[in-house]
Specification:
The structure holds two protein chains of two kinds. By secondary structure, chain A is α/β, with parallel strands linked by helices. Chain A contains seven helices and nine strands, in the order βαβαββαβαββαβααβ. Helix content of chain B is 38%, strand content 26%. Chain B is built from ten helices and eleven strands. The longest helix of chain B is centred in the middle third of the chain and has 22 residues. The chains are: A alpha/beta, B alpha/beta.
Amino acid sequence: MVIEIKKLATSVAITRKSIDLFTRYVGKLLYQKIQEKLKHLAEHEVVVIDFDGIRSVDASFVDECIVPLLELSQANTTPFYIKLINITDNVEYIVHQVIGMAQEQKRYIVMTDRLCKNGCHALGSISEMEIDIIEYCVINKQATSTDIASFLHISESEAYDSLMRLYEMRAVRKIHDDNVFHAI
Amino acid sequence: MAIIQIPDQCKDPFSFESVIGLYQTIINQKARGLDLSHVTFIDPYSLVCLLLIGRNYLRLTGNKLTLHRIPTQILQYAVRMDFFSHNIFDCDETLEKQKQLKRSMASSRLLEVIEIPGKEKESVKVIAKVISMFRKRALVILKHWFTLTMVDYLVTVISEICQNIFEHSLDSGFIVIQSYMYLNERIFRIAIVDSGIGIPGSFEYMPEIKTMSNARLLESVLTTPLSSKRRYGYGLCQVNAIMEQLKGSIFLRSENAYISVLHHRRSAKGSYIFLKDDCPSFPGTQFSITLIG
């Protein structure tokens, strides 16, 4: 599913002609609109949020729109994955800062279509090892714990745990009950 | 009822502290007016803070302060900035139409004083208008700094600080933006001010914060994700991080304290930070965001 956020923003009076998404108010409104679209979501579907036409966002918008979406994607009822595409440097920076600051032992990672300034196709609070695993999956499209274990010289169980953690944060896809994890 | 002489200390947020020092006298003596004859220059921050002084006076006494003996160039500037459109001050002089500064696009290195309402929905509309106007004029305002990415970051800064007015201050506020030359320096300044409950006031119910001095609290809100309302309070933290990237400076004043963070002047330990408590008390929160080129 592709959600063109600019198109969605044009349906809100305040942001009709805007190339910026800001304030908690706008964040909440767009989150509600995205939620409506998610009603028809299939399990393990990738929700692509296209930021084409949007130049900047602020932390309040991200806090009210992107963070709850990530939270929703992590719920076990219908797992789905979020990918942000066509983001500007500003959107990358603010999203990274906000979801990277998340506290209370709740971590968020969001995938993007570009190699970000942290050297990864994902934003948020990500360890060096997790960056390596995500990038391995992005390049090879998929990975097993055996692949990651041999790539990072770690034990297979450690590799599996890391992949599972990334799956729980919806940074890699796991469609079947096998040991294969897919890139988003 | 006296007329209070305003000193020639309206050049930047630091010098304007002398004028804020007169605030209690203006209120307590129920001053009739302010004499601006000594003022030779007034920067955007001082302009909107002066507006706050007038508004507080109006709210407390029910009367407008009158500006006396205002030099022509200051009057021209104030009129150009829509200072008098907010109906807060009276002025004993009028400016003939031919003496008014032009409002052509070429002279639009500024965004006139705009009121940010204290209610969410109205405020969001005004912030949208401010951002749209800033984007349209950015090429002229930020002539010496302009990159599209820089404009994007400044849009985020404007939005974050303006939102704090309706989210935290429980009051309305003002924003003004301008780039200008002063003492051979190119200065770009955003001033966003309110006279609400202030940052210490919005953290009143957090006991762990109460032990801090007000200046330390201002430092904390700029450097740590701290919020009086939300799980994650990144707003001002983001503003500071962005200004660090842009190598600008921040002056943040609230109640009786201020902090000044100079990202354009760094030592090995990082940016220079100045904290000051025991300043003259002045209600609300006042921001000045500056780039010097």
